[in-house]
Amino acid sequence: MENGTFGAPKLNGLILTGGRSTRMGRDKSQLIYHGKPQREHLTELLAPYCEAVFWSVNTEQAVELPTTDQPLIIDLFDFPGPLNGILSAFTHDSAAAWLVVACDMPLLTTRSLDALLRGRNLAKLATVFYDSDGQFPEPLLGIYEPAFHPVLKQAMIAEQYSPRQALQQHDVQILTVPDIRELANVNDPATKALLGL
């Protein structure tokens, strides 16, 4: 693995699959867009950039995956949302940086990942893109540095569970994504159909 950043902490991958998928009506991480379940496709996509790639899962999913060889990080905290997965990852390895990707970004390619790694700023708490509106940080595709762990823990203690809000309130690197379509979140069947997937 080579991320091109000398002296950087090791980079692990984290695929956020632990959402309830209520709008989609089925587990979004198991939808097939590229000839295989999305979580497996993303694992292969992230592997060249990372020391290891983990699936972030909720407790129900963990019960359904007892024999998988894929490393899992099970949600440790009692609140919903992606912050739970990210904090659980830092609890697993607080010395690593985490390349976080939501499982519902089927248009993501190495073009965006390459841009993210090239633009990574180790002096900042995280490196992310502007979201699809071009106004706010996109928390579901980015690199979270080890120094962001205590910030996120404080946010949890304060019951502020929005990772976007944490990014807005702290010193982070925000980049412009090469292709805005790659940030598309497919959360429901209507969006899936709209994108022709």
| Biggest beta-sheet profile | 7 strands, mixed
**Topology as H/E string?**
EHEHEHEHEEHHEH
Intertermini distance: 31 Å
Instruction: Please state the structural category.
Output: alpha/beta
According to CATH, what is the topology? Spore Coat Polysaccharide Biosynthesis Protein SpsA, Chain A
Regarding CATH, which class? Alpha Beta
Please indicate the count of domains.
1
Name the beta content range.
15-25%
Number of helices: 7
Second rung of CATH, namely the architecture = Alpha-Beta Complex
Low-confidence stretches: none
How many DSSP E strands? Answer: 7
The whole-angstrom Rg is 16 Å
Percent in helix = 25-40%
- The CATH superfamily appears as Spore Coat Polysaccharide Biosynthesis Protein SpsA, Chain A
EC number: 2.7.7.77
Family: Belongs to the MobA family.
Binding site for GTP: 16-18, 28, 75, 104
GO biological process, one term: Mo-molybdopterin cofactor biosynthetic process
Task: Considering the chains and any ligands shown, give keywords for the structure.
single chain; 197 residues; alpha/beta; Spore Coat Polysaccharide Biosynthesis Protein SpsA, Chain A; 7-stranded mixed sheet
